[in-house]
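BACKBONE GEOMETRY TOKENS
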Amino acid sequence: MDKKLKIGLVSPYGWDLPGGVQIHIRDLAEHLIAKGHEVSVLTPAVEEELLPTWVQSAGRPLAIPYNGAVARVSFGPVATLRVRKWISEGDFDLLHLHEPAIPSLSLLACWAAEGPMVGTFHATAPRQKAIFAVGPILEPAIEKLSARIAVSEMARETLTEHLETNAVVIPNGINHQFFSDAKANPEWVGSSIGFVGRFDEPRKGLDVLIKALPEIIKNNPDLRIMVAGPGESEDVLKGVEQSIRNRFLFLGRVSDVDKARLLKSVDLYVAPNTGGESFGIILAEAMAAGTAVAASDLPAFRATLDNGNAGALFINEDSTDLARVANNLLLNKELNEKLGKSGQEWSKRYDWSIVAHQIENVYEMVSSTGEKVSLGSELRGRMRSK
């Protein structure tokens, strides 16, 4: 894409506690800036002084339950005013709104703006009565989008099912070389399993792994479990036998460099998530590091792992099957290495050089008219009168 654009990206979730969506937005923004585009990201944030220069805070987020987790979003009168001000001053060629179908800054921007807008849908969820109840409110906003992207086929199906609209599938992106070139930490190398995520959220499935550990340890007596991510370790390990508790190393929130080093250091990365996943970006990162992956057979994980060819699958919420798969990969070094290489090759399709190019093609399509993003006429009048 030769044309340089002024792009406004909107993150629905708080920047201070990054998850897959925020990491996707951050990496996309950095890639676009490196390509010469001018980018501004609007996001909920607490520690505004720590934000990059191209990120603007819309205020502190509030925690709400969503899709089996806790979403930290901004919504309401103050957030609405800040969204309108950001749009009015931005002079954007287009807006890229992430998760515009939930109460968030993205939905507020979609309501307020006119002109070229792209929406990316990350979530996957079963049919829910609550979504049907707000459908009539959401549909007019979603119809304003010039283009719709879903990060997986499962996310696309959720969008189609809930809002009766379609989207092009473009996956989450990763910096493949960053993970491939990472150096293992000698202190973490050995007989080890890795887990990354908000481990105090039940749907992340750490309890499924814990139940599988006695059988895994029986065959791997020196096994350690390396856990990175926010959460209270004591709450997770209540009632767990002391001999197993001692095998855990909780690293807390880690930098991108340490996350890559962790993925490079462990013998096996395990993703025992029980539901609510639309892609599995951590699987792509672990594969890029060349580490063998074992994951629950959620549809999203199955697709990310090429139906089991790029990573092993076990029955969702079945700790016995998890133990079987883990033992197979920990005891069979040749199979472990072969799976790691297959995953590393497969994960190249998720590199930003490929994913961002697909997104830029969408940008080119929606911005081809030369129309700029603006506030609706009624909102413009209100802004002038203040």
Q: What stands out?
A: The domain at 176-349 is CATH 3.40.50.2000 (Rossmann fold). The longest strand covers residues 38-43. Confidence is low (pLDDT under 50) at residues 128-133. The first helix runs from residue 20 to 34.
